[in-house]
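Give me structure tokens for this 252-residue protein.
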Amino acid sequence: MAFDPQVAALDLACLTKVFYGSAPITPAALAKAREVFAQVAFMQIYGSTECGMAAVLRPEDHERWSQCTGREALLSRLRIVDEAGADVAPGAVGEIIVQQRHIGMLGYWRNDAATREAIVDGWIRSGDLARVEADGVFTIVDRRKDVIISGGENIHPGEIEAAIAAHPAVAEVAVFGVPDQAYGESPCAAAVLRAGHHAGADMLDAWCVQHLARYKRPRRFEFHAALPRNASDKVFKTVLRAPHWQGRERMV
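Here you go.
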């Protein structure tokens, strides 16, 4: 993450609150932002068009939980559940569901099938997977549709992305599943390098050896000038993934 070199010369006294969200922020970027804007109260917001604003990480939460997503917001009720719909225990990962009542959507316009799939017994399925922390806090780990199933192991691309993004040569990275003859699918990392830096696949793989379990390491690395993004500025993993799956059916 780069900051304008003139930021130190600016009078930022009037800036007291910063709200951020929509996509994960790397620990390094958040730490740098809190250093540059030392007087600012940071608040992380989590929600969606379907669910509304479901959770918040308050300024006082940042002291202990700065790398987490947040806790249930006012007027919202959310749960983190397993495939059977039961609440998962602390430390476990499940899907976030948000109560439709008060702030959730009524349904998708003229799409009853999608509505029935998204809303179950008054709860909206977010499609987001989260780990339950202590004190009512949770951490988003990935999108359910992006989970890579490799040799029977569930691999969360977000964990791999966080590890690779910490490399000094990497500006941004997206990880997704590609076909693997032995394991069904395996992780592939698409990276954008920082200007003036160089890193090849061997260098990034050596970095992953130090920071990831063996089965989570990408089997392939791609290098791009920029990552494809949608109208909300989120990385379009479907675009990155599509060329690898032509003529094949992905089961996730």
